[in-house]
Recover the amino acids of this structure.
């Protein structure tokens, strides 16, 4: 097997560990899904934590290691996550939600080449962070995460 495969397997494993830690803290916590980015577990997600978490995720998604994530790679990644999380609490594997998730992700493809590059992914993440961080203090609090989820 190639080195790329090995690296991908490693990062997938790292992600799995992070996810397990987040689950131990309870995904039902105030940060919800964003809890997995809270590396120092202070109950808030800083811009750095958010960027680092998403960067790790990007590496996991980029299964052929070309530095860009295609629709197929993203689809495979979410299916893998769904399987790992056992479909989650109701409708995680819902085809409509899955489609929405894919469309949402592909919206980051600003140059329209059908691939989301690391830069495009980061730009989309930065914009998303700003939209969640409504008080603009550079941290996502539990309240802000809740507001996003119930938006
Ligand atoms: Ca934190
Ligand atoms: Ca692109
Ligand atoms: Ca904030």
């Amino acid at each position: 097997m190639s080195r790329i495969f090995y690296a991908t397997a490693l990062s997938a494993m790292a992600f799995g560990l992070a996810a397990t830690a987040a689950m131990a803290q309870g995904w039902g916590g105030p940060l919800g899904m964003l809890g997995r980015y809270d590396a120092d577990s202070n109950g808030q997600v800083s811009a750095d934590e958010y960027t680092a978490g998403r960067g790790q995720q990007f590496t996991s998604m980029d299964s052929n290691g070309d530095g860009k994530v295609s629709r197929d790679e993203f689809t495979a990644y979410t299916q893998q996550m769904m399987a790992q999380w056992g479909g989650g609490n109701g409708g995680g594997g819902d085809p409509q939600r899955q489609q929405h998730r894919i469309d949402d992700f592909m919206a980051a493809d600003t140059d329209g080449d059908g691939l989301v590059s690391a830069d495009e992914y980061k730009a989309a993440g930065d914009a998303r962070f700003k939209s969640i961080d409504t008080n603009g203090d550079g941290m996502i609090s539990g309240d802000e995460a809740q507001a996003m989820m119930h938006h």
Q: What stands out?
A: The chain is about 60% helix and 5% strand. The chain has one domain: 2-149. The first strand starts at residue 45 and ends at 46. Residues 38, 40, 42, 44-46, 49 surround calcium ion (ligand 1) (CB under 6 Å).
